[in-house]
Amino acid sequence: MFLRLGLAVDQVGAKRVVLDTVEVLFTALGNEAIVRSELARLLRWLKDRGPTVVITGEHGRPGELTRYGIEEYVVSDCVVVLDHQVSEELSTRRLRIAKYRGSLHGTNEYPFLITDRGIVVLPVTSIGLAHAAPTDRVGTGIDRLDHLLGGGVFQGSTVLVSGGAGTGKTSIAASLADAACARGQRALFVSYEESPAQLLRNMRSIGLDLARWVDAGLLRLWAVRPTAYGLEEHLVALHRLLDEAAPSSSSSRRTR
Predict the structure, then answer these.
(1) Concatenated DSSP letters for 165-229?
(2) Which CATH number fits domain 137-223: 3.40.30.10, 3.40.50.300, 3.40.50.80, 3.30.160.250?
(3) Is the pLDDT of residue 142 over 80?
């Protein structure tokens, strides 16, 4: 294996080397001590050659990162720990950076998803409170409500509309999205109770034609059941939707 890997690195001029599930070597070869020694020698040789080496391994006993304690004798500059938990029938994947030499890094567990567009990580516990506080107002599309609010809600603010079933929460939210699109801005509408078709039909009954904005590419409707993911997965999905839909602010179409 040592000779074959060395030859392959030389032939392709590899700058990256991946050893996937290295524990297989311990089961395929009988003498664990020799495997440890040769693997350590191989990794030292690769480090001298300069490529970036990525090693994957399975979890070991409690207190050990890998099954055969590879982290004890492999000199790793960075250790990334992955975890997969199922709680109340909901699957959650989490990522933690256990070690990263010479670099400041987050040490908490972060949710991540494996999607059709790759791996998405959301460091929710690292989000700070350094966002701006604009003084511009955003109209809700309801004139009297805007008057009560002093001209609308502050741009970039978070507004909670609370009420029981049938009190008009969805209608007010749809009015705000309709008003934004009427100004030529992009809007994202996330629904946890109604499908996009239901939402378009029901809002049409109060005079809001949201379908025209969907057709114009200004309105993005996204519907999903709350029980489809865990909380972290919902946050990751929303983060991705915001990047894709790029909803506008009142001052610029490209500002989120």
Answers:
(1) TTSSHHHHHHHHHHHHHHTT--EEEEESSS-HHHHHHHHHTTT--THHHHHTTSEEEEE--GGGS
(2) 3.40.50.300
(3) yes
